[in-house]
Prior knowledge:
The protein has 355 residues and is α/β, with parallel strands linked by helices. It is built from ten helices and 19 strands. Helix 8 (227-236) crosses helix 9 (247-255).
Amino acid sequence: MKARLLLIDGTVFTGTSFGATGESIGEVVFNTSMTGYQEIVTDPSYCGELITMTYPLIGNYGFNREDNESLTPHCQGLIVREHAEYASNWRNEQSIDEWLAMHHIVGISGIDTRMLTRKIRIHGTMKGMITTSEEPVEVLLSRLQDTSLRTDQVAQVSTKSVQISPNNGKRVVLVDYGAKHNIHRELVERDCEVVVVPYNTTAEEILKYQPDGVMLSNGPGDPKDVPESVQAIQGLLGKVPIFGICLGHQLLSLACGADTEKLKFGHRGGNHPVKELATGRSYLTAQNHGYVVREASLEHTALRVSHVALNDGTIEGVEHKELPAFSVQYHPESAPGPLDNGYLFDRFMTMMEGK
């Protein structure tokens, strides 16, 4: 079946439909990872987005239950140059077509993803639509222009109830803004008892669990759309060690008086180099974010920059000068991505031990 990708500027790409049929509207972004497409489409941070994979062949090793980063995918659609109709891997359980159809996610293949990616790099991320409808472009464009993108992505992906994973080690409250499963796994592997709470849990409610530390998870959207989370973090600072990842990093920075801004096309991929300023060492990192902390806004705060992106110089990590709190913009839980950055979880463990 024919499918079309329509951008808000009127550009039309015609290709082949795979996955679910129908229509989906979201922000068109691109990811440069060569593998890990299953972890990418199940990452809650992609809520509301149409994901373009820059690597040309997607789906060649299929899908399986173990590699999901959430129980339910939240992305709006998938855009690829070529999708593999038949998967070849001993762990494969479903083809990419079957998996997307099961989760009602529309996909389009057979388009020039290189041209699309260059367009996004030049003009920035933009609203788009994947559709299998035969309606005229003028009708589709009018509907696209009249549709507003939602700003409640964190509320959509966050857990609705408290979940506890008992263990014998430190108790960590994981504030779920759209947490990937691997954050939870990294904590459990270090014998932590993990208490997962909804994004709008207050500081008073979190402290009732008597945590040894608080983890601020990754998540989708603009950090300024969840002011209640900023207020909660302000109530936790100085009372318990804090470690923030991605959206959690941005929210910690806002709570300390810094500011954030939207990037032109964001950082999304499993191959982004980041430099740790204290050691001078560079790491390859997995990233997925469209917003960044403004460096100039840190001047009158108690935060200092700990990591920077080598590609564009943007802030990739901060740490509090006086209190036990730090954060990184990238994903040290690394699924998908390199395994270089697990040491940050060890640093969090050391911090909870009071050292």
